[in-house]
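re: the backbone from monday

yeah here it is again, tokenized this time
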């Protein structure tokens, strides 16, 4: 699992990096070698009222797929948790789609 984390302006980048890496390993680690590159972008709230923290996650589903989620929340950690959960569900759905396609291809070949 190759994790690339990009943080917007924030006060605790190392704490956030460790938190994000731990959450992603916990959520996606059981998919094993099917998980390729993970790109994570985190943007904190700006000073203007009504802005939300955002977390965007792109995951490569090996061998031939990818998923992307973009979540916003009133708290940075909630945005990370929400995006991680959404990425996990989207990853499972994409992996299921790939496996069904592989099974259909095998059936046609045989």
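seq for it, each position gets an aa:
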């Amino acid at each position: 699992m190759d994790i690339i984390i990009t943080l917007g302006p924030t006060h605790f980048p190392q704490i956030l990096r460790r938190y994000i890496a731990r959450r992603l390993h916990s959520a996606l680690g059981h998919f094993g070698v099917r998980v390729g590159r993970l790109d994570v972008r985190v943007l904190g709230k700006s000073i203007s009222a009504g802005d939300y923290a955002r977390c965007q996650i792109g995951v490569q589903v090996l061998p031939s797929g990818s998923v992307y989620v973009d979540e916003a929340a009133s708290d940075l950690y909630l945005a990370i948790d929400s995006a991680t959960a959404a990425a996990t569900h989207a990853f499972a759905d994409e992996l299921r789609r790939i496996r069904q396609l592989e099974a259909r291809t095998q059936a046609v070949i045989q």
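Residues 2-109 form a domain with the Double Stranded RNA Binding Domain fold (CATH 3.30.160.100). The longest helix spans residues 76-109.
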